[in-house]
Amino acid sequence: MRFVVLTMQDALLALTKYWTDRGCMVVQPFNTEVGAGTLNPATILRVLGPEPWRVAYVEPSVRPDDSRYGENPNRLQTHTQFQVVLKPDPGNPQELFLDSLTALGIDIHAHDVRFVEDNWANPATGSWGLGWEVWLDGLEITQFTYFQQAGGMTLDPVSVEITYGIERIMMALQGVSHFKDIAYAPGISYGEAFGQAEYEMSRYYLDDADVDSQKRLFEEYANEARRMLDARLPVPAHVYVLRCSHTFNVLDSRGAVSTTERAKAFGRMRSLAREVAQLWAERRTELEHPLGIAELPAAAPEPTSFPTVTGTRQLTFEIGTEEMPPSEVTKTAEAVRTALTEKLAATRLGHGDITAYATPRRVVAFVASVQAGEPDAERVVRGPRKSTAYDADGNVTKAAAGFARGQGVDVSELHDLDVDGVEYVAVTKPDPGRGAAEVLSGVLSEIVSGLRSDKNMRWNDAKLSFTRPVRWLVALLGDQVVPVSVSSLAAGRTTRVLRTAAQTQVEIAAAEGYLDLLRIHGIEADPARRREQIVTAAQELAAGVGGTIDVEGESALIDQIVNLIEEPTAILGGFSADYLTLPGEILTTVMRKHQRYLPVRDGDGNLLPHFVAVANGSVDEDVVRGGNEGVLRARYEDAAFFWRADLETPLETMKSELEKLAFEERLGSMADRAARIGRIATSLAAVVRLDGDDLTTLRRAAELAKFDLGSQMVVELTSLAGTMAREYARRAGEAEAVAQALYDMELPRSAGDPVPSTTPGALLALADRFDLLAGLFGIGAKPTGSSDPFALRRAAAGVVAILREHPSLQAITLETGLKAAAAEIGAQGIDVPAESLEEVAEFTVRRYEQQLIDRGDDHHQVAAVLPLATAPAVADETLASLQELVGSSDFADLVAVLQRVRRIVPEGTEASYDAGKLTEPAEVVLHEAVQKVGQAPTALADFVTAASVLVEPVTTFFDEILVMAEDPDLRAARLGLLATISALAAPVLDWQALGTSLSPAE
Questions:
Q1: Which of 386, 691, 697, 744 is spaced 20 to 30 A from 706 at the CA atom?
Q2: Which among 319, 359, 360 has a CA at the least distance from the CA of 339?
Q3: Does the pLDDT of residue 43 top 50, yes or no?
């Protein structure tokens, strides 16, 4: 097929024709500014309610904050979207979308078209959905979303929203590097048609918009929206909410919105938008839904017959999906394997090994050597108690007769059954084994129904919910289809291969040939083999330019790539060596985070001007290489622009930008948080008696804390926080120690990352995390289940990791740090309850516990040191001592007597006694031993040495002395003596937690 490069107006006409030919109605762009086509009432209101709706339209989308005076090649304050809404989900929206690319002149067989996870949310309207960015050779060209909520209302049915970024698509198609050079119409460029407007509106939004006028307009628009809602007119109310939104965006682009004003404005707009949505839905109901009610697919018929098999055969079960998020691919395979194992164990069906693989589009489970059916068995059904089954004369009562009748047996077949000493009557009935297909049918249906992920969605199947839509099922036992019915899905023998294949659906003859059949069609289902293919190909390509791939260092990225593709095609790309003058972290962050490219390095680890991209399937490698290189070039140009602009900006000016960055409404702006961090760090420095150069470094770094969050680079690439602080501080002439401390304060970023290398950096990092934990727990924003929006688990784990690696900071316990943070937060008028601090401390101790368990430490020993974990380095030292002592018979004996002492002493017994009451030889000897120990040391090894003198006297004491004597004074003295021993041991270890896990050396 020959593809013709279109002008932009041709592309808009082609998309309009394509979607109208498929049942969409055309509407016009909205007549007030919207930030995205989503906010046109043809989307945001029409997705509400049960009416069907298929629409396509062009939407000029206005985003004042993206104003660049027409100078940035990729950013415009007004860009063009083509919006499609399909309600309900038609069942094949991805395939429809791919065909639309062909209509645009895009050869999807030559290009690498990918669906990459992207979850959309618009808090201002209470709307969210799950879906993807669509990449064309690494360039995001479309947002593809299954709408789940709008206006705070759950959507039923679910709508599919497809939003094309037209300028981006046209730049890729026409091979131009600046939006101004797009051929808009024959002989007319985009810049010629719209360049003046782009410049002048950028001037207005960034420089000339009158702030007071815009604030007045915001109030007027909000009030008018309120008035229209009160008049029950949702459409004009929506118009004024949109005008509020645009006015707010203008104020924001002028830098005229404080953190408090931002929170209030968002809250106001969110409330209005939700009322608009609810009122719209009510009005459509009042109008009796003029467009009718959308119809969803009918339920698949339940299986009524099952094939029989002979001998043992393999089961192959495939759950076909649309592209799952990479993080869910591996987890889902394991969840399916676990569920299948557990559910089959609850049957009598014999089978062999169970394995599971996954790709972005399928989860496949295999069960080897499945028996033809279950063996026959007998089943005992318990009836009433024997005492009520027969009367005094031994005659059958109505209760027993009714039970027998209900079971379809004669009363003569009842027999006795003893259950925990209680006699019942029962009946034993034959339980014929079911055929394998019948057993598997139910099991597999339950597995699909039970699929869940961290974030679930719905589509056109009302009874299913999962991370992405489930579109097909394959269930084969040998060469027989296992009838599986789940909501609207029915299993068969037809699988789907790559969407660009000549034949996209293929039949599987038998379960045993599944993997080989996929491989014939280019798909590798085994993730380990996909990984091997990617690594081998990437290393070969890198070697061709004298480089290598850091496989270990890029392991997480490689894992992600493995779960993004089904047929790996590695492609070597390059970029101008001029960009190597930028800090390497900038270059690799763009490659990894934005593009999923593998950096190529030389033998010394230095970056080379090359990368490896991994396409999905067979493509035109030159076309895909060129596309990816163009995307990376554009991103590096942006990065170079930010880098130059930031280097011209004083650090204090960047720091002042933090006033505009919201942190949390009650806890203030990011500037408020940065100031608290500095003061908390200074407070902690006093605890550890920091002095000299380190104290000077800390004070200066505290003044600059978080300044790089106000830089253009970090606003664009947030993961570079800390990295850019170090780079900019160095170039601004700050001391190297200050620059390093600013870098260190962001460490560790995740589990396993390095911790701060300097003491000032460690104190700032601790202050950062203590502020986060105390503040958010204090206002009730703690993690729940899988939801942890402020990454508090990571923050707590970071505190533990830092304190473990910096023993010199032992004086900073969790309580010390949290109280210092609470004091600073309290100074802002926010009370942090003591219970919240206790909860945070326990939450953090649990992170310490998990780190040790993950390391493989014995859980008894871990539990024993947990009371010390408020000072993790102390707990570490104690655990190390404990591990050296384990196996020692003397230590085991000491543990045994201390545990015995602790068990016999009632809770609350005072650790004091009248020695004059102790007259028996055994108790006198024990008293003398306790006096000899005196004030026992708390370090485990030292305590064991000091307390060893107690073992024999305690043993003799328990052998010869009755602790609970009748004389209350004597009993109190004996218990007080034991309580004193328990109190001596308590600060050292939780001795009871060791249980009986210790054993003397062989």
A1: 691
A2: 319
A3: yes
Report H helices in 358-512.
386-389, 398-406, 436-449
Q: At what angle do helices 759-778 and 736-744 cross, to 10 degrees?
A: 30
Instruction: Provide the b/e sequence for 471-481 (b: ≥16 CB within 10 Å).
Output: bbbbbbbbebb
| Alpha-carbon distances of 753 from 347, 553, 750, 762, rounded to whole Å | 45, 11, 6, 14
- Which positions ≥6 away from 139 have C-beta within 8 Å? 168, 172, 627, 630, 631
| Pair 84, 56: CB distance under 8 Å | yes
b vs e for 19-41, b when ≥16 Cβ sit within 10 Å of the residue's Cβ?
A: beeeebeebebbeebbbbbbbbb
What residues contact 763, with CB distance under 8 A and at least 6 apart? 681, 684, 685, 688, 690, 698, 809
734's CB contacts (< 8 A; 6+ apart) are 651, 700, 704
Cα angle at 801 between 796 and 802, to 5 degrees?
Answer: 100
Lowest-pLDDT range of 120-129, 183-192, 558-567: 120-129
Six-digit token pair at 388? Answer: 């009520």
Task: Round to whole Å and give the CA distance between 56 and 128.
Answer: 20
The three-state secondary structure class of 845 is: helix
Beta-strand pair 25-26/53-62: parallel
> How large a percentage of the chain has pLDDT more than 70?
99
The radius of gyration computed from the CA coordinates of the chain, to the nearest angstrom, equals: 35
Can you tell me the mean pLDDT for 268-273? 92
Q: How far apart are CA 777 and CA 137, in angstroms?
A: 44
Closest-CA residue to 861 (of 1000, 999, 995, 1001): 995
Handedness of CA 378, 382, 386, 390 (dihedral sign): negative
Task: For the chain, give the percent of residues with pLDDT over 90.
Answer: 81
Task: Indicate the pTM of the whole model.
Answer: 0.85
Distance in angstroms (rounded) separating the CA atoms of residues 156 and 471: 19
- Find the Cα–Cα–Cα–Cα dihedral 533, 537, 543, 545, rounded to 10°: -150
Tokens of 141: 């060209």
Cα–Cα distance for residue pair 89/296, rounded to 1 Å: 9
For residue 711, give the H/E element and its range: none
The gap from C-alpha 775 to its chain's centroid, in whole angstroms, comes to: 22
β-pair type (354-359, 313-321): unpaired
Other C-beta atoms within 10 Å of 622: how many? 10
Instruction: Kindly report, residue by residue over 203-259, the tens digit of the pLDDT.
Output: 999 999 999 999 999 999 999 999 999 999 999 999 999 999 999 999 999 888 877
Query: CA–CA separation, 457 vs 469, rounded Å?
Result: 8
Q: Is 941 exposed, middle or buried (0-12, 13-18, 19+ CB in 10 A)?
A: middle
Distance CA(392)–CA(412), nearest Å, equals: 18
| Cα gap 310→322, rounded to integer Å | 35
Tell me the per-residue pLDDT of 685-709, one tens digit each, with 9 for 90 and over.
Answer: 999 999 999 999 999 999 999 999 9
Listed in sequence order, the residues at least 6 apart from 364 whose beta carbon sits closer than 8 Å to its beta carbon are: 316, 317, 318, 319, 356, 357, 358, 514, 525
